[in-house]
Amino acid sequence: MSKISDRLNRLSYSQTFVMSNKAREMKAAGIDVISLTLGEPDFDVPQKIKQAAFDAINENYSHYSPVPGFPELRQAISDKLKRDNHLNYKPTQICVSNGAKQSIINVLSAIINDGDEVILPAPYWVSYDEMVKLVGGTSVFIETSIDTEFKITAEQLEKTITPKTKALLYSSPCNPSGSFYTVEELEAIANVIAKYPEITIISDEIYEFINYEGKHVSIASFPQVYEQTAVINGMSKAYAMTGWRIGYSACPDWLAKACDKVQGQMTSGANTVAQRASITALEMDPSELKFMIDEFHKRRDIVFDLMKDIKGFKCNLPKSAFYFFPDISYFIGKNLNGTEIKDSDDFAMFLLENAKVACVGGVSFGSPECIRFSYAASEAELREAMKRMKDCLGQF
Ligand SMILES: Cc1ncc(COP(=O)(O)O)c(C=O)c1O
After folding, report:
1. Architecture of domain 6-44+289-393 in CATH?
2. Which of 19, 67, 176, 326 is packed most tightly, with the most Cβ within 10 A?
3. Which residues does the UniProt record annotate as the domain Aminotransferase class I/classII large (predicted)?
4. 235 CA distance to ligand 1 centroid (A)?
5. Does any ligand 1 atom lie closer than 6 A to the CB of residue 153?
6. Using one digit for the tens of pLDDT, what is the confidence trace for 345-362?
Protein backbone atom coordinates (compact mmCIF):
# COMPACT_ATOMS: atom_id res chain seq x y z
CA MET A 1 0.00 0.00 0.00
CA SER A 2 1.34 3.46 -0.88
CA LYS A 3 1.90 5.80 2.05
CA ILE A 4 1.02 8.61 -0.32
CA SER A 5 -2.69 9.22 -0.83
CA ASP A 6 -4.41 8.11 -4.04
CA ARG A 7 -5.34 11.74 -4.61
CA LEU A 8 -1.71 12.85 -4.59
CA ASN A 9 -0.58 9.83 -6.56
CA ARG A 10 -2.88 10.96 -9.36
CA LEU A 11 -0.99 14.26 -9.60
CA SER A 12 1.99 14.86 -11.88
CA TYR A 13 5.04 16.97 -11.20
CA SER A 14 5.00 20.26 -13.06
CA GLN A 15 6.86 19.61 -16.32
CA THR A 16 8.02 23.23 -16.20
CA PHE A 17 9.88 22.54 -12.97
CA VAL A 18 11.14 19.16 -14.23
CA MET A 19 12.78 20.81 -17.24
CA SER A 20 14.05 23.86 -15.38
CA ASN A 21 15.58 21.66 -12.67
CA LYS A 22 17.26 19.49 -15.27
CA ALA A 23 18.67 22.62 -16.96
CA ARG A 24 19.91 23.86 -13.59
CA GLU A 25 21.65 20.54 -12.87
CA MET A 26 23.35 20.64 -16.27
CA LYS A 27 24.51 24.21 -15.64
CA ALA A 28 25.85 23.20 -12.23
CA ALA A 29 27.82 20.45 -14.00
CA GLY A 30 29.46 23.12 -16.14
CA ILE A 31 27.31 22.63 -19.26
CA ASP A 32 26.36 25.85 -21.04
CA VAL A 33 22.55 25.54 -21.14
CA ILE A 34 20.12 28.33 -22.06
CA SER A 35 16.92 27.89 -20.11
CA LEU A 36 13.71 29.23 -21.62
CA THR A 37 11.50 27.19 -19.33
CA LEU A 38 10.09 29.48 -16.66
CA GLY A 39 7.33 32.04 -17.03
CA GLU A 40 9.06 34.71 -15.06
CA PRO A 41 9.82 38.32 -16.05
CA ASP A 42 13.56 38.96 -15.88
CA PHE A 43 13.11 42.54 -14.61
CA ASP A 44 13.60 43.89 -11.11
CA VAL A 45 10.63 45.04 -9.06
CA PRO A 46 10.15 48.80 -9.61
CA GLN A 47 11.88 50.86 -6.91
CA LYS A 48 8.66 52.46 -5.61
CA ILE A 49 7.22 49.07 -4.80
CA LYS A 50 10.40 47.98 -3.04
CA GLN A 51 10.33 51.19 -0.98
CA ALA A 52 6.74 50.47 0.06
CA ALA A 53 7.89 47.06 1.33
CA PHE A 54 10.74 48.63 3.36
CA ASP A 55 8.25 51.11 4.80
CA ALA A 56 5.85 48.31 5.71
CA ILE A 57 8.58 46.51 7.64
CA ASN A 58 9.54 49.72 9.46
CA GLU A 59 5.91 50.42 10.22
CA ASN A 60 5.65 46.97 11.79
CA TYR A 61 3.24 45.28 9.45
CA SER A 62 4.31 42.06 11.07
CA HIS A 63 1.07 40.58 12.37
CA TYR A 64 -1.59 38.45 10.72
CA SER A 65 -3.71 40.35 8.24
CA PRO A 66 -7.42 39.68 7.75
CA VAL A 67 -7.77 36.38 5.83
CA PRO A 68 -8.88 37.96 2.52
CA GLY A 69 -6.30 40.77 2.78
CA PHE A 70 -5.94 44.28 4.21
CA PRO A 71 -9.01 46.44 3.50
CA GLU A 72 -6.73 49.07 1.86
CA LEU A 73 -5.36 46.50 -0.57
CA ARG A 74 -8.82 45.17 -1.39
CA GLN A 75 -9.89 48.77 -2.00
CA ALA A 76 -6.87 49.27 -4.32
CA ILE A 77 -7.82 46.12 -6.22
CA SER A 78 -11.44 47.26 -6.45
CA ASP A 79 -10.20 50.62 -7.84
CA LYS A 80 -7.88 48.87 -10.29
CA LEU A 81 -10.67 46.64 -11.60
CA LYS A 82 -12.79 49.73 -12.15
CA ARG A 83 -9.98 51.74 -13.77
CA ASP A 84 -8.58 49.08 -16.08
CA ASN A 85 -11.46 46.67 -16.63
CA HIS A 86 -14.65 48.68 -16.03
CA LEU A 87 -15.64 46.13 -13.41
CA ASN A 88 -17.51 46.95 -10.22
CA TYR A 89 -16.42 44.84 -7.28
CA LYS A 90 -16.78 45.88 -3.66
CA PRO A 91 -13.67 45.23 -1.55
CA THR A 92 -15.64 42.49 0.22
CA GLN A 93 -15.86 40.60 -3.06
CA ILE A 94 -12.08 40.38 -3.27
CA CYS A 95 -9.87 37.73 -1.69
CA VAL A 96 -6.09 38.30 -1.70
CA SER A 97 -4.05 35.08 -1.79
CA ASN A 98 -0.52 33.69 -2.01
CA GLY A 99 -0.41 34.19 -5.75
CA ALA A 100 -3.02 33.68 -8.43
CA LYS A 101 -2.30 29.98 -8.13
CA GLN A 102 -3.89 29.92 -4.69
CA SER A 103 -6.76 32.10 -5.87
CA ILE A 104 -7.61 29.46 -8.50
CA ILE A 105 -7.44 26.53 -6.10
CA ASN A 106 -9.56 28.50 -3.60
CA VAL A 107 -12.30 28.89 -6.20
CA LEU A 108 -12.07 25.27 -7.34
CA SER A 109 -12.15 24.02 -3.73
CA ALA A 110 -15.18 26.18 -3.11
CA ILE A 111 -17.29 24.85 -5.99
CA ILE A 112 -16.18 21.38 -7.10
CA ASN A 113 -17.74 18.19 -5.75
CA ASP A 114 -16.32 14.75 -6.55
CA GLY A 115 -16.91 13.98 -10.20
CA ASP A 116 -17.90 17.51 -11.25
CA GLU A 117 -16.54 18.46 -14.64
CA VAL A 118 -14.32 21.44 -15.35
CA ILE A 119 -13.89 22.43 -18.98
CA LEU A 120 -10.31 23.26 -19.94
CA PRO A 121 -9.64 24.60 -23.43
CA ALA A 122 -6.35 22.97 -24.49
CA PRO A 123 -3.62 24.08 -24.38
CA TYR A 124 -4.07 25.12 -20.77
CA TRP A 125 -1.73 26.23 -18.03
CA VAL A 126 -0.06 23.12 -16.54
CA SER A 127 -1.48 23.49 -13.04
CA TYR A 128 -5.16 23.67 -14.02
CA ASP A 129 -5.66 19.97 -14.66
CA GLU A 130 -3.71 18.99 -11.56
CA MET A 131 -5.68 21.40 -9.39
CA VAL A 132 -8.95 19.99 -10.73
CA LYS A 133 -7.75 16.48 -9.82
CA LEU A 134 -6.72 17.65 -6.36
CA VAL A 135 -10.22 18.87 -5.55
CA GLY A 136 -11.81 15.67 -6.89
CA GLY A 137 -13.08 17.05 -10.19
CA THR A 138 -12.68 15.77 -13.72
CA SER A 139 -11.14 17.89 -16.46
CA VAL A 140 -12.86 17.82 -19.84
CA PHE A 141 -10.65 19.15 -22.61
CA ILE A 142 -11.54 21.05 -25.75
CA GLU A 143 -8.92 20.54 -28.44
CA THR A 144 -7.64 23.45 -30.50
CA SER A 145 -4.74 23.87 -32.90
CA ILE A 146 -2.27 26.44 -34.12
CA ASP A 147 -4.56 27.11 -37.10
CA THR A 148 -7.18 28.68 -34.81
CA GLU A 149 -4.56 30.39 -32.64
CA PHE A 150 -5.31 27.70 -30.06
CA LYS A 151 -8.70 29.24 -29.25
CA ILE A 152 -12.04 27.50 -28.77
CA THR A 153 -15.30 28.60 -30.34
CA ALA A 154 -18.60 29.11 -28.60
CA GLU A 155 -19.99 26.12 -30.57
CA GLN A 156 -17.24 23.82 -29.32
CA LEU A 157 -17.92 25.01 -25.80
CA GLU A 158 -21.65 24.40 -25.98
CA LYS A 159 -21.14 20.86 -27.29
CA THR A 160 -18.84 20.07 -24.35
CA ILE A 161 -21.24 21.16 -21.61
CA THR A 162 -22.96 18.29 -19.74
CA PRO A 163 -25.20 18.22 -16.65
CA LYS A 164 -22.01 17.65 -14.63
CA THR A 165 -20.21 20.77 -15.89
CA LYS A 166 -19.43 23.06 -13.00
CA ALA A 167 -16.78 25.41 -14.37
CA LEU A 168 -14.93 26.72 -17.38
CA LEU A 169 -11.30 27.54 -16.57
CA TYR A 170 -8.99 29.32 -19.01
CA SER A 171 -6.39 32.06 -19.24
CA SER A 172 -6.66 34.98 -21.65
CA PRO A 173 -3.99 36.12 -22.45
CA CYS A 174 -3.06 32.46 -22.54
CA ASN A 175 -0.14 30.63 -21.07
CA PRO A 176 1.15 28.71 -23.07
CA SER A 177 -0.17 29.86 -26.46
CA GLY A 178 0.23 33.64 -26.13
CA SER A 179 -3.22 34.15 -27.70
CA PHE A 180 -6.04 36.18 -26.25
CA TYR A 181 -9.77 36.14 -26.91
CA THR A 182 -11.23 39.16 -28.69
CA VAL A 183 -14.30 41.02 -27.39
CA GLU A 184 -16.50 39.23 -29.93
CA GLU A 185 -15.14 35.81 -29.04
CA LEU A 186 -15.59 36.48 -25.33
CA GLU A 187 -19.13 37.68 -25.87
CA ALA A 188 -20.00 34.50 -27.77
CA ILE A 189 -18.56 32.41 -24.91
CA ALA A 190 -20.43 34.53 -22.36
CA ASN A 191 -23.70 34.02 -24.23
CA VAL A 192 -23.29 30.24 -24.02
CA ILE A 193 -22.38 30.19 -20.33
CA ALA A 194 -25.23 32.54 -19.43
CA LYS A 195 -27.64 29.76 -20.44
CA TYR A 196 -26.21 27.53 -17.70
CA PRO A 197 -26.39 29.43 -14.39
CA GLU A 198 -24.80 26.54 -12.46
CA ILE A 199 -21.51 27.00 -14.37
CA THR A 200 -18.81 29.31 -13.02
CA ILE A 201 -16.25 30.89 -15.35
CA ILE A 202 -12.80 31.05 -13.80
CA SER A 203 -11.12 33.73 -15.89
CA ASP A 204 -7.38 33.84 -15.31
CA GLU A 205 -6.19 37.30 -16.37
CA ILE A 206 -2.70 37.27 -14.88
CA TYR A 207 -1.12 38.32 -18.22
CA GLU A 208 -3.57 41.20 -18.68
CA PHE A 209 -0.92 43.88 -19.20
CA ILE A 210 1.38 41.81 -21.39
CA ASN A 211 -0.66 42.34 -24.51
CA TYR A 212 0.78 43.77 -27.70
CA GLU A 213 -2.42 44.23 -29.68
CA GLY A 214 -5.68 45.53 -28.46
CA LYS A 215 -6.94 46.20 -25.00
CA HIS A 216 -7.51 43.48 -22.47
CA VAL A 217 -11.16 42.62 -21.91
CA SER A 218 -12.44 40.65 -18.95
CA ILE A 219 -15.32 38.29 -19.58
CA ALA A 220 -16.83 39.54 -16.31
CA SER A 221 -17.56 42.82 -18.10
CA PHE A 222 -20.41 41.07 -19.96
CA PRO A 223 -23.38 41.59 -17.65
CA GLN A 224 -24.93 38.25 -18.60
CA VAL A 225 -22.08 36.39 -16.84
CA TYR A 226 -20.89 38.87 -14.21
CA GLU A 227 -22.64 36.87 -11.48
CA GLN A 228 -21.11 33.63 -12.80
CA THR A 229 -17.49 34.76 -13.08
CA ALA A 230 -14.45 34.59 -10.83
CA VAL A 231 -11.78 36.99 -12.10
CA ILE A 232 -8.25 35.90 -11.21
CA ASN A 233 -5.29 38.25 -11.37
CA GLY A 234 -2.15 39.09 -9.43
CA MET A 235 1.14 40.89 -9.11
CA SER A 236 3.54 38.25 -10.49
CA LYS A 237 3.71 38.98 -14.19
CA ALA A 238 2.93 42.67 -14.71
CA TYR A 239 5.02 43.91 -11.78
CA ALA A 240 7.77 41.24 -11.95
CA MET A 241 6.80 40.24 -8.40
CA THR A 242 6.70 36.46 -8.84
CA GLY A 243 8.44 35.75 -5.54
CA TRP A 244 6.29 38.16 -3.51
CA ARG A 245 3.32 35.81 -3.90
CA ILE A 246 0.32 38.09 -4.17
CA GLY A 247 -2.68 37.19 -6.30
CA TYR A 248 -6.40 37.81 -5.96
CA SER A 249 -9.87 36.75 -6.98
CA ALA A 250 -12.90 38.99 -7.56
CA CYS A 251 -16.14 37.03 -7.31
CA PRO A 252 -19.86 37.23 -6.64
CA ASP A 253 -20.52 37.64 -2.90
CA TRP A 254 -21.34 33.97 -2.22
CA LEU A 255 -18.11 32.81 -3.86
CA ALA A 256 -15.95 35.49 -2.25
CA LYS A 257 -17.19 34.30 1.17
CA ALA A 258 -16.42 30.70 0.22
CA CYS A 259 -12.85 31.62 -0.85
CA ASP A 260 -12.37 33.39 2.47
CA LYS A 261 -13.53 30.22 4.25
CA VAL A 262 -11.15 27.94 2.31
CA GLN A 263 -8.18 30.24 2.73
CA GLY A 264 -8.92 30.81 6.42
CA GLN A 265 -8.35 27.11 7.08
CA MET A 266 -5.43 26.67 4.72
CA THR A 267 -3.02 29.60 4.84
CA SER A 268 -4.66 32.69 6.41
CA GLY A 269 -3.89 36.14 5.00
CA ALA A 270 -1.06 36.51 2.48
CA ASN A 271 2.33 37.98 3.40
CA THR A 272 1.68 41.38 5.01
CA VAL A 273 4.75 43.19 3.66
CA ALA A 274 3.99 42.07 0.11
CA GLN A 275 0.36 43.11 0.57
CA ARG A 276 1.35 46.64 1.59
CA ALA A 277 3.75 46.91 -1.33
CA SER A 278 1.03 45.71 -3.68
CA ILE A 279 -1.11 48.72 -2.75
CA THR A 280 1.63 51.00 -4.10
CA ALA A 281 2.01 48.82 -7.20
CA LEU A 282 -1.70 48.91 -8.01
CA GLU A 283 -1.84 52.66 -7.53
CA MET A 284 0.87 53.16 -10.16
CA ASP A 285 -0.32 54.23 -13.56
CA PRO A 286 -0.16 51.19 -15.87
CA SER A 287 1.90 53.35 -18.26
CA GLU A 288 4.77 53.01 -15.76
CA LEU A 289 4.97 49.33 -16.69
CA LYS A 290 5.19 50.03 -20.38
CA PHE A 291 8.98 49.71 -20.51
CA MET A 292 8.67 46.00 -19.66
CA ILE A 293 5.93 45.40 -22.21
CA ASP A 294 7.91 47.23 -24.90
CA GLU A 295 10.94 45.08 -24.16
CA PHE A 296 8.90 41.84 -24.35
CA HIS A 297 7.37 43.07 -27.59
CA LYS A 298 10.81 43.69 -29.10
CA ARG A 299 12.04 40.25 -28.05
CA ARG A 300 8.92 38.59 -29.42
CA ASP A 301 9.56 40.08 -32.86
CA ILE A 302 13.21 39.03 -32.82
CA VAL A 303 12.38 35.47 -31.79
CA PHE A 304 9.56 35.19 -34.32
CA ASP A 305 11.88 36.18 -37.16
CA LEU A 306 14.56 33.72 -36.08
CA MET A 307 12.14 30.89 -35.37
CA LYS A 308 10.85 30.97 -38.94
CA ASP A 309 14.25 29.60 -40.04
CA ILE A 310 14.19 26.60 -37.71
CA LYS A 311 13.40 23.42 -39.57
CA GLY A 312 10.18 21.68 -38.57
CA PHE A 313 8.80 24.53 -36.44
CA LYS A 314 5.33 25.78 -37.35
CA CYS A 315 4.77 28.94 -35.40
CA ASN A 316 2.12 31.62 -35.13
CA LEU A 317 2.77 35.13 -33.88
CA PRO A 318 1.68 35.23 -30.22
CA LYS A 319 -0.15 38.46 -29.44
CA SER A 320 0.26 38.49 -25.67
CA ALA A 321 2.04 36.96 -22.65
CA PHE A 322 5.70 35.96 -23.21
CA TYR A 323 5.64 32.51 -24.74
CA PHE A 324 6.03 30.86 -28.13
CA PHE A 325 4.20 27.59 -28.63
CA PRO A 326 5.39 26.17 -31.95
CA ASP A 327 3.91 23.01 -33.41
CA ILE A 328 6.73 20.49 -33.87
CA SER A 329 4.64 17.57 -35.17
CA TYR A 330 7.13 17.31 -38.08
CA PHE A 331 9.52 15.58 -35.65
CA ILE A 332 7.01 13.30 -33.92
CA GLY A 333 7.50 9.66 -34.88
CA LYS A 334 11.04 10.38 -36.14
CA ASN A 335 14.27 8.97 -34.81
CA LEU A 336 16.76 11.80 -34.24
CA ASN A 337 20.28 10.44 -33.93
CA GLY A 338 19.04 7.40 -32.00
CA THR A 339 16.41 9.24 -29.95
CA GLU A 340 12.83 8.11 -30.54
CA ILE A 341 10.52 11.18 -30.56
CA LYS A 342 7.09 9.96 -29.42
CA ASP A 343 5.79 13.33 -28.30
CA SER A 344 6.90 16.87 -27.59
CA ASP A 345 8.27 15.96 -24.14
CA ASP A 346 10.77 13.64 -25.85
CA PHE A 347 11.53 16.44 -28.29
CA ALA A 348 12.12 18.97 -25.50
CA MET A 349 14.52 16.53 -23.85
CA PHE A 350 16.28 16.00 -27.19
CA LEU A 351 16.73 19.77 -27.58
CA LEU A 352 18.08 20.09 -24.07
CA GLU A 353 20.63 17.32 -24.55
CA ASN A 354 21.64 18.19 -28.11
CA ALA A 355 21.09 21.93 -28.60
CA LYS A 356 21.55 22.78 -24.91
CA VAL A 357 18.34 24.79 -24.96
CA ALA A 358 15.72 24.06 -22.30
CA CYS A 359 12.03 24.47 -23.11
CA VAL A 360 8.92 22.62 -21.94
CA GLY A 361 7.13 19.87 -23.87
CA GLY A 362 3.45 20.48 -24.53
CA VAL A 363 2.11 17.19 -23.12
CA SER A 364 1.31 18.66 -19.71
CA PHE A 365 -0.28 21.71 -21.38
CA GLY A 366 -2.62 19.35 -23.23
CA SER A 367 -0.86 19.80 -26.62
CA PRO A 368 1.55 16.91 -27.20
CA GLU A 369 2.51 18.26 -30.63
CA CYS A 370 3.81 21.64 -29.35
CA ILE A 371 6.62 22.95 -27.18
CA ARG A 372 6.72 26.10 -25.08
CA PHE A 373 9.51 28.67 -24.97
CA SER A 374 9.44 31.63 -22.66
CA TYR A 375 11.05 34.73 -24.13
CA ALA A 376 11.40 36.40 -20.75
CA ALA A 377 15.17 36.10 -21.23
CA SER A 378 17.85 38.48 -22.50
CA GLU A 379 18.06 39.27 -26.20
CA ALA A 380 21.55 37.75 -26.38
CA GLU A 381 20.34 34.48 -24.83
CA LEU A 382 17.33 34.37 -27.14
CA ARG A 383 19.45 34.89 -30.26
CA GLU A 384 21.92 32.23 -29.17
CA ALA A 385 19.11 29.77 -28.32
CA MET A 386 17.51 30.18 -31.75
CA LYS A 387 20.89 29.69 -33.45
CA ARG A 388 21.59 26.53 -31.47
CA MET A 389 18.22 25.03 -32.38
CA LYS A 390 18.54 26.00 -36.02
CA ASP A 391 21.97 24.37 -36.23
CA CYS A 392 20.89 21.27 -34.32
CA LEU A 393 17.65 20.64 -36.22
CA GLY A 394 18.86 21.66 -39.67
CA GLN A 395 20.37 18.19 -40.19
CA PHE A 396 17.05 16.29 -39.95
C1 LIG B 1 -1.79 31.33 -16.54
C2 LIG B 1 -1.17 31.46 -15.18
N3 LIG B 1 -1.99 31.60 -14.13
C4 LIG B 1 -1.49 31.71 -12.90
C5 LIG B 1 -0.13 31.69 -12.66
C6 LIG B 1 0.36 31.79 -11.24
O7 LIG B 1 0.67 33.06 -10.88
P8 LIG B 1 1.11 33.41 -9.39
O9 LIG B 1 2.58 33.61 -9.42
O10 LIG B 1 0.37 34.67 -9.08
O11 LIG B 1 0.71 32.29 -8.51
C12 LIG B 1 0.75 31.56 -13.72
C13 LIG B 1 2.21 31.49 -13.49
O14 LIG B 1 2.99 31.06 -14.30
C15 LIG B 1 0.22 31.45 -15.02
O16 LIG B 1 1.02 31.33 -16.08
Report:
1. Alpha-Beta Complex (3.90)
2. 176
3. 32-388
4. 10
5. no
6. 999 999 999 999 999 999
